[in-house]
Amino acid sequence: MYFDIVVIGAGPAGLAAAIKASQRASVLLIEREAKPGGILKQCIHDGFGVVRFGEKLSGPEYAQRFINQLKDTDVKTAFFSFVTQIKRLEQGFSLHYVCKEGVKHVNCGKIILATGCRERTANAISVFGDRCSGVFTAGAAQNLVNVLGVLPGRRVVILGSGDIGLIMARRLTLEGAKVLGVYEAKPVPSGLSRNIHQCLHDFDIPLYLSRTVTRVFGRDRLSEVEISEVDENMRPIAGTQQRVQCDTLVLAVGLIPENEVAASLSLPMDGRTKGAIVDQTCQTMADGVYACGNALHVNDLVDYVSESGETAGFFASQERKPRKLVPINVVGGFGYAVPQMLDLNCDAKNVIIYFRTAQPEENKRVTLTVGDKTVFSKKYARLLPPEMERIAADLSDAQGEITLKMED
């Protein structure tokens, strides 16, 4: 069987990509879970869709908007299916996936990677100690509470002040648990400012900065955690250890783009985003392979996840000229910027660039220049690493070096 495009992943990026691509191409949408929607299925808090729909939706409500649109397309779906092998052919790709019926094979012209991201675990951050129950990633705890109706514990320590950690601090408190504190190894919080206020301050949940969990204790069930202060390099400081009695440790210590499929295709990756290097169309450095959403870089708003999915879906369904790529140079205190490349032989009238700072910055001007011409300039009173910024610029007449710069 042949499809013009295979989309891997049916979260918000994959749904948006499949819907947009189906307007011009035949599409197969493959998802490893039994239902589409991705992580949104368990995000029952509101705040989704403010940019796209102009209203606050819960995660399931936001996902359902796209699921409803998907039903009105000719997109073929394969749920509870796992891609096991992708091979490049002389023209297009050969793809194998495993489903309930067994192993299936399709050929396709292009591939869109919308595989989302995954959480770091205790092993990934070197938390030592007993191998006891009661240690959860924030996503696992969220699934227990919101989907299965199970309270993971009564006395909870949360490590990491990212948005999902903050949201779970509030959620567990509302369900009757005592959140003893949110601990963050960095000197500044990792989550959005509004979540710091709405999830911690409003519920009198303490936030401890420059501290981390270094050891867990418990014969069968977790009984204590060891908390240590950390230095400027986030290394534990000897002699600062304190023990906190608890029965649950929730790890909200960061997300990493899920890119095993990208690795199998030997795609050039960006060490800062942990995702593939792409041009303004979301096409990777391999012709015919696109990446979008949190598989490309971890977004702070689902609206931008869907936006990049639509970008990938639109351009993947178009006939493309051979690419003429030039780099988008990044100068100053940026953590990263996406896209990393510009295709001069493709539409560049409305190029969207997402960026984050490496450290908190104040009173900085961000400019985008092409040669000696400034095409974007904005003064930011404050820039924070957790809060992604988005700019749009016309680069259709790009002549000369392209530079994104941050300066006083």
From TrEMBL:
<keyword id="KW-0560">Oxidoreductase</keyword>
<feature type="domain" description="FAD/NAD(P)-binding">
    <location>
        <begin position="3"/>
        <end position="296"/>
    </location>
</feature>
<dbReference type="GO" id="GO:0016491">
    <property type="term" value="F:oxidoreductase activity"/>
</dbReference>
<dbReference type="Pfam" id="PF07992">
    <property type="entry name" value="Pyr_redox_2"/>
</dbReference>
<dbReference type="InterPro" id="IPR036188">
    <property type="entry name" value="FAD/NAD-bd_sf"/>
</dbReference>
<protein>
    <submittedName>
        <fullName>FAD-dependent oxidoreductase</fullName>
    </submittedName>
</protein>
<dbReference type="InterPro" id="IPR023753">
    <property type="entry name" value="FAD/NAD-binding_dom"/>
</dbReference>
<dbReference type="InterPro" id="IPR051691">
    <property type="entry name" value="Metab_Enz_Cyan_OpOx_G3PDH"/>
</dbReference>
